[in-house]
Amino acid sequence: MAEGVRRLRARILFDHGRRPDFRTALGEFEDDQELDFGAWHFVARDGDGEALGYVRLCVPEVGEQFQTRAFLGAERYAALLREHGLDAADTYEHSRLVVEHRARKLGLGIHLNAAAIGAARHLGARAMVGTSGTADGQDVFHARFGFRPVDGTRRYAEQYTEDVVVMMYRAAERAGEHAALVEELERAFPGMVTSAGEAAASVRPAPRKAAGRPEGDARWRAELFDAARDEDARAVKELRGSGQVREELDTLGAQLEELVTCREPSLRGSRDGIERAVTEQLAGRPVEEYGTWAWYPWSGRLVHLLPREEFRLVRTDRNRGRIERPQQRDLLERRVGIIGLSVGSSAALTFAMEGIAGAYKLADFDELSVSNLNRLRAGVHHLGLNKCVIAARQMAEIDPWLDIEIYTEGLTDEVIREFFTGGHGPIDLLVEECDTPRIKMVARQWARELRIPVVMDANDRGLLDVERFDLEPERPLLHGLLGDATADELADPGPQELIEIILAMVGRSSISAEMAAAIPRIGTTLSSWPQLASGVALGGALTADAARRILLGLPRPSGRYYTDLDLLTSAERNVLT
User: How would you write 356-382 as a 3-class SS string?
Assistant: First the structure.
């Protein structure tokens, strides 16, 4: 394997300093692994022979050196194979998928990954394993090829500075949404081989779906570049030259003025004082070398911002008087889980705007449809996109430093433990807004066991529901409104049974007159439950207010609370008469 390719993958894995282990003390990029020997290497090159991307496929003969085995330990890895009825002799490993930034728009990562999977299938693999990072959605990317996370394997990996999870693919199954490409490259594999253990992948865009959204359209994380670092400055320059930047916004001068006046409000109105304070803040550095460049790949926008702590100080400055700076810092240390990103999207965005948490986990399997646009803050260009992705993008556009994980298959049994306890610790609060009774109960069972408070907006009469399992670990789920019903007993109800369950949850006698009149029409003259954008927006405000109070240790006891606008704004409530 060429040393240049090793340096390529080390440089990309280094990721502008995010993973410092991939650069030596002398400043050289290094990723020297014995596992490279006896492996297949798939290298994508441009017309001049320059390597643009790479992926490695390791064969069973070097199975004792697999990264997955090292990550899990020999005993746990052997047990994993036994649990899935596999032998070491027919299990392959893929790893080290890297792509140059300027080549990612080509869909090169999809093509390389498909080539490695197709080759493994051609070579007789029954299964493939690998470790996937979670910070940038690598696990989500691999899931689109049919890989599934192995329960209980996620943990923080120091070398990669992120949570890593083991994923597995069974060759007998189709390769997810990229099955056709994988099968094409499986057939083409013998002709791709250029030397022992190496294959060349042609650089061409991965095919788009015949209908729907383009491949690679599920990105939701902003890419951040430190303006003071030479390497990051070169990356930004390269990005500008790539043709991907559709809009560049640089208001750093105005942001610096806001920063100094937020710190010293008495400077307002003093042009000389502001300029003097800005000069002191820069401390001799040019403005163009100060702060952070945030790149939003889904919109093609490149934005110059203050450094993280200064940006957040200014962004939340108007919260002061209601949320003081020590409280703001406390809230940013918290982690919030949100299930159901239709009604829950309003909560997610309100939380992000108000600075209620610094880390989020979002779960929803559904994609945006036209009928969602009556209540979900999105545009027609989002149609067909997973609702978690939409919310995560909008939150990143408010604060690009937010730590957001998404679960685009929803809160399944396979990921529920990870959702509640994975990453750097349990979530501190759950916002539950899903439509499935079983998931509502399962989520609360986990929350109660882990002593996590739950808030919910019912989207009718401004109903806010609060369950303080952190203070009352023996509290009945959903206030005991469903009696002794278990989650399994609520699985797969019929249409009429579903209505009865939901009425029991929200309180049959407490619903609005409009909702009571609508329920008999559902499935006949109404397609589903009626919901309005105003009600969803109110729900975001109610859950945010409750969450802020709970996380700051302020009073917000368990119970149900109505903010019924029909009553609160009725004629007799008019204070002017």
Answer: CCCEEEEECCCECCHHHHHCCCCCHHH
- From 3, 14, 241, select the one nearest 105 (Cα to Cα): 241
The answer to whether residues 326 and 319 touch, using CB atoms and an 8 Å cutoff, is no
Instruction: List the beta bridge partners of residue 455.
Output: 431, 466
Question: What CA–CA distance (Å, rounded) separates 278 from 116?
Answer: 53
Name the 3-class secondary structure at 160.
Answer: coil
pLDDT tens-digit series, residues 450-472: 999 999 999 899 999 999 999 99
Give just the sign of the alpha carbon dihedral 254, 255, 257, 258: positive
Question: What's the one-letter identity of residue 45?
Answer: R
3-state SS class at 155: strand
Q: Which of 217-221, 246-250, 369-373 has the lowest mean pLDDT?
A: 217-221
**Alpha-carbon gap, residue 354 to 339, rounded angstroms:** 19
Q: State pLDDT tens for residues 244-285.
A: 999 999 999 999 999 999 999 999 999 999 999 999 999 999
Task: Reduce the DSSP state of residue 468 to 3 states and report it.
Answer: coil
Asked if residue 204 has pLDDT above 60, the reply is no
Burial class, 539, CB count within 10 angstroms (exposed 0-12 / middle 13-18 / buried 19+): buried
- Measured between alpha carbons, how far is 111 from 93 in angstroms, rounded to an integer? 17
pLDDT mean over 371-375: 95
Residue 530 has a CB neighbour count (10 Å cut-off) of 18
- In this prediction, residues 109-128 reach a mean pLDDT of 90
Question: Which residue type sits at 90?
Answer: D
Instruction: Round to whole Å and give the CA distance between 536 and 187.
Output: 51
Cα–Cα dist 430/551, whole Å? 11
How far apart are alpha carbons 124 and 422 in whole angstroms? 34
Rounded Cα gap, residues 208 and 432, in angstroms: 35
Residue 399, amino acid: D
Count of beta carbons in the 10 Å neighbourhood of residue 320: 12
CA count, 13 A, side-chain hemisphere, 222: 25
Q: Could you give the CA distance from residue 112 to residue 202 in angstroms, rounded to a whole number?
A: 9
How many whole angstroms separate alpha carbon 530 and alpha carbon 458? 12
